[in-house]
């Protein structure tokens, strides 16, 4: 039974990972979170993750992954690179090559140290912006590779994999966490907590999903 087991959540303090954290707290007996410092553009992300972990009373691990910043210059690690969506089949400027590969691998190493079998990540193929390391096939492949490399039986969970942003807000609401996630999380590429700047691609995706979900609820209440 999952209620008797322990999990690690890969945690940025954003909408998706915080929804996953609430899901994990409902699903597992014990939950810890891990945040990666890769010298990202906005240090508020790390502070936001720390604050949420403290408020929800979960153990928080912060790992230094600044080598990723050195290897993968992009709009999330460089102030002088413009945030823009991918055009003509190109990846968005916010794609960090190898990020989820590295994060999940290190999360597994941590999980082995704290005796956690389950690893949760908020990647999503429905609204994945073209990021190849958010695909279900990647996660399943990596799960097999991690288990073979460490001779373990980890299970990587992706509660949001087939949800669009409206469905993610619906899940948050079902977990009685919609207002908390709306007010306390940081999704904005400009580093604005809550509803964000309203202009960057992350804010637009988040807002469109929320608006769609709230409209659907209003229709259901009529």
TrEMBL record:
Zn(2+) binds at residues 188, 197, 200, 203. ATP binds at residues 11-21. Pathway: Purine metabolism; 7-cyano-7-deazaguanine biosynthesis. Binds 1 zinc ion per subunit. Keywords: ATP-binding, Ligase, Metal-binding, Nucleotide-binding, Queuosine biosynthesis, Zinc. The keyword Calcium does not apply. Its cofactor is Zn(2+). Its EC number is 6.3.4.20. It catalyses: 7-carboxy-7-carbaguanine + NH4(+) + 2 ATP = 7-cyano-7-carbaguanine + 2 AMP + 2 diphosphate + 2 H(+). The keyword ATP-binding applies. Pfam families: QueC (PF06508). One of its GO terms (molecular function) is ATP binding. GO terms for biological process: tRNA queuosine(34) biosynthetic process. Homodimer. Belongs to the QueC family. Catalyzes the ATP-dependent conversion of 7-carboxy-7-deazaguanine (CDG) to 7-cyano-7-deazaguanine (preQ(0)). PANTHER family: 7-CYANO-7-DEAZAGUANINE SYNTHASE. HAMAP family: QueC. This is 7-cyano-7-deazaguanine synthase. It comes from Aquibacillus salsiterrae.
């Amino acid at each position: 039974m999952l209620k008797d087991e322990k999990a690690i959540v890969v945690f940025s303090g954003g909408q998706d990972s915080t929804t996953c954290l609430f899901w994990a707290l409902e699903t597992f007996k014990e939950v810890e979170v891990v945040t990666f410092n890769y010298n990202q553009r906005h240090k508020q992300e790390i502070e936001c993750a720390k604050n949420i972990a403290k408020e929800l009373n979960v153990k928080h691990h912060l790992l230094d992954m600044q080598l990723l910043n050195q290897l993968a210059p992009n709009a999330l690690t460089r102030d002088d690179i413009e945030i823009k969506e991918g055009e003509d089949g190109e990846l968005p400027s916010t794609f960090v090559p190898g990020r989820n590969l590295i994060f999940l691998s290190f999360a597994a190493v941590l999980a082995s140290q704290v005796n956690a079998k389950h690893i949760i990540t908020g990647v999503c193929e429905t609204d994945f912006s073209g990021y190849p390391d958010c695909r279900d096939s990647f996660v399943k492949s990596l799960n097999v590779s991690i288990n073979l490399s460490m001779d373990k039986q980890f299970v990587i969970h992706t509660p949001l994999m087939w949800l669009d942003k409206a469905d993610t807000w619906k899940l948050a609401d079902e977990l009685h966490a919609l207002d908390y996630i709306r007010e306390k999380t940081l999704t904005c590429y400009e580093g604005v907590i809550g509803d964000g700047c309203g202009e960057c691609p992350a804010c637009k995706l988040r807002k469109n999903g929320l608006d769609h979900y709230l409209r659907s609820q209003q229709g259901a209440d009529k």
